[in-house]
Design a protein that fits this description.
The protein has helices spanning 35-49, 87-95, 104-114, 176-180, 182-189, 200-221, 238-250, 276-292, 339-342, 391-403, 461-470, 475-485, and strands at residues 2-8, 12-19, 24-31, 53-58, 99-103, 124-129, 133-139, 142-143, 225-229, 267-268, 298-303, 311-318, 324-331, 349-356, 359-370, 375-379, 382-384, 406-409, 421-422, 431-432, 434-440, 454-459. The protein is of the alpha+beta class. The protein has 12 helices and 22 strands. The longest helix has 22 residues, at 200-221. Strands 14, 15, 16, 17, 18, 21 and 22 form a 7-stranded mixed β-sheet that branches. A hairpin with a 5-residue loop joins strand 12 and strand 13. Bound molecules: adenosine-5'-diphosphate (ADP) and zinc ion. Adenosine-5'-diphosphate (ADP) binds next to helix 5.
Length: 500
């Protein structure tokens, strides 16, 4: 399935198509003229690719009130030809596909949360300091809108005592955009911002204003990550200066290591380079598609808890007869990554079916304490995938950590045995494949976390029967023990072969 995205700016329109996973296939840049001469060029690009849905991250102000007749329209703007233009409708009518729309900065923060530097955050900000200043707000697992949408680029700042510059914002004397945007720098110092690198007083003052704004945002939103970018932030000396100002202005009041010693990991450039805007637009399209799909059996999903690791979700679900009812499930995924929405097949974890290399008549199992049972249970070694890790890589790492053993992956057999299968599909959207292989080395459980209580056991067929008969056993563990009971020592993975 292909998705389209538009990063709609005052000077250029970036149009792209991508896969669901966010792999960009083609991108074109069209200068922003009038709607009459710009939109047809954009449409012909998308008509060539026929995406299933389109997302637009746009300059503003834009009407984002879904209940309003003007939803998806650009509102009053200095770009006269675009004022009161039905940007979303233009694409929906011409392409006849679902079209999602939000601000350019909300799109960017979404992409950083899903794929970039703010991954796994439930609250994060994307601040761009460029021609204008904008702030995208991802809050409690969703993009923040309200009366209209946040305009945090125009927050009012305390002027530096030595700064006489009147500001460039036509609306405010002392707002962030008026004092610190690229054009403000150019007007104050008489040269384009990019040519002022060696003037330290320029960046001292700039960091004073950006730092003040970031401090206010931290105090207001309590973000878990602050992504800072835009043309002006391409001055590399500015990041440490802004961080230092923020620490000074917070005055040690916010008690968290990210606001303290680890501020380098808190106020960061994007994880997606120059692409958060366009990838965010792709995600807006993706979400719109899952919201409007006719086969969709739910209206919306809310996260009911705010825990680390695992959360409870509520869904307004539609039954077979079209009637709505309450459905509850748990997930380790964030709100945007719930599979009901994304339909992604990405596994969260994996389990390992490892035979003892020196004697393949033995299977490596764990006897592990599990809190929901308040007891020990027999199960396969397993774990969660870290960012960017394949199931096989995670299996090798987890084996080492949990058992001290070295895992050698078995590469034979049919590929479909390595599909991520679902774990407890009435309870959660989680899935994971089984990784098959041989284990060798010295058993050692020093890599265990404090919350873990694991013993490694090597199980032969007799012990397998005893475990099945007498012990508590995980579902995956039980079925693979049954498989193990029928395996021949000489060809222990024959059951993975396609033929036979
Ligand atoms: P926009 O805000 O229009 O999306 P940008 O984020 O690229 O665009 O910002 C453009 C602004 O950033 C211009 O005012 C320009 O002067 C300034 N700028 C661009 N490159 C640099 C640089 N290397 N250092 C400082 N300022 C820069
Ligand atoms: Zn302003």
């Amino acid at each position: 399935m292909l998705l389209g995205g538009i990063e709609a700016g005052g000077t250029k329109m970036v149009c792209a198509v991508a896969t669901e996973e966010g792999r960009l296939l083609e991108r074109v840049v069209i200068p922003t003229g009038t709607p009459e001469n710009t939109i047809p060029l954009m449409l012909s690009f998308f008509k060539k690719w026929e995406p299933a849905a389109l997302g637009i991250g746009t300059f503003g102000p834009v009407n984002l009130d879904r209940k309003s007749a003007g939803y998806g329209y650009i509102m009053k703007t200095p770009k006269k030809e675009w004022a009161h233009y039905d940007l979303m409708g233009a694409f929906r009518e011409a392409l006849q596909i679902p079209v999602g729309i939000d601000t350019d900065v909300n799109a960017a923060v979404l992409a950083e949360v899903v794929w970039g530097a703010a991954r796994d955050c439930s609250t994060a900000l994307y601040i761009t300091v460029g021609t204008g200043v904008g702030v995208g707000v991802y809050c409690n697992g969703g993009l923040l809108h309200g009366l209209v949408h946040p305009e945090a680029g125009h927050i009012l700042l305390s002027r530096h005592p030595q700064d006489q510059f009147p500001g460039v914002c036509p609306f405010h004397d002392n707002c962030l955009e008026g004092l610190a945007s690229g054009p403000a720098l150019e007007k104050r110092w008489g040269r384009p911002a990019g040519e002022l690198s060696d003037r330290s007083e320029v960046w001292e003052l700039e960091a004073y204003y950006i730092g003040q704004a970031v401090t206010d945002y931290i105090l207001t939103y309590s973000p878990q990550r602050v992504v800072l970018w835009g043309g002006v932030m391409h001055q590399p000396q500015l990041f440490p200066m802004v961080r230092a100002q923020v620490q000074k202005m917070l005055g040690g009041y916010v008690q968290h290591e990210l606001a303290g010693q680890h501020i380098d990991a808190y106020i960061v450039p994007p994880g997606l380079g120059e692409d958060p805007g366009i990838l965010g637009a792709i995600l807006l399209g993706k979400h719109e598609l899952s919201n409007t799909s006719e086969t969709n059996r739910y209206k919306d999903i809310q996260r009911l808890s705010d825990n680390p690791f695992l959360n409870l979700y509520h869904m307004n679900a539609k039954n077979r007869m079209g009637r709505m009812f309450d459905y509850y499930f748990v997930s380790r995924n964030g709100e945007m990554d719930i599979k009901a929405k994304t339909h992604s097949r990405r596994p969260e974890g994996m389990a390992v079916y490892a035979l003892w290399k020196e004697n393949p008549g033995l299977l490596v199992m764990l006897r592990q304490f599990r809190y929901p049972l308040n007891d020990y249970i027999y199960e396969l070694p397993a774990g969660l995938l870290e960012d960017g890790e394949s199931a096989a890589e995670a299996a090798i790492r987890e084996m080492k950590e949990e058992t001290g053993l070295t895992l050698e992956i078995y590469e034979g057999g049919a590929e479909y045995f390595r599909n991520p299968f679902y774990l407890a599909q009435g309870l959660t959207d989680e899935s994971g494949p089984i990784v098959f292989g041989y284990a060798a080395g010295e058993i050692g459980t020093e890599g265990q976390e404090d919350g873990e209580d694991i013993a490694v056991v090597l199980v032969d067929k007799k012990e397998a029967k005893r475990i099945l008969a007498e012990e508590r056993v995980s579902m995956r563990g039980a079925y693979l023990l049954m498989q193990f009971l029928h395996a021949e020592k000489e060809q222990p993975f024959a059951f993975l072969d396609e033929e036979g």
